[in-house]
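ok so i was messing around last nite and threw this chain in just to see what happens. nothing serious, just curious
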Amino acid sequence: MPGTHRTGIRTGVRTTLATIPLVVGLLVANAAPAGASVGPHPHTSLTCRGAGVDPNARVRHRAEIVIDAPLRMVWNLQTDIERWPSWQAPVTTAERLDGGPLRPGSAFRWTTPVPPNPTPATSLEITSTVEQLAHHTCIRWTGPATGEGLHIDGVHVWNFTRTRTGGVRVSTEETHTGPQVDADVPTATAILRQGLEGWLSDLKATAEARTHQPHQPH
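result:
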């Protein structure tokens, strides 16, 4: 995060996350992609300009994927916030709260639907702030996601590395904090994993499709 994406949950309603399958990658609920390499990395943590995820968070996940597309293409897709809904179905709206290129201090607001759950919430609004950024290298953002009866906090870090074959390895790590996620860490972690993998899958599919589409004759 929103970081997450995709972001822990606070609410007065006592219920497990198993009944609220929503907050993913900072809240992006997609099926896991076959091409993503995922799993816990207990001894490492991604950083951007020396800052990483929440070291005290019990809910965390890290995943990565290799994309057969130029770094510039992948970076532009990820940082063109207002066009996220065009390639990520779980993102219903997205708006920048400032202008110009994405940079430290930039903020953006985006929304995602919430499946039926014990709270009145039907959607979540995420307000993310970029804390650190290195062009074509990394992004770290933080911020809350709120819905009626729900509040989610998270930290999301992205790393982008050129591969020897001209593609890009995209690595992402996110942490969630809050009483509700802490009450059911395995379920919350599984939801986070699903969201991060879904985001990577959509990013890969979109970047590769645009890179390899046939050139139209003039």
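not much to say yet. The helical segments are 71-79, 179-183, 185-212.
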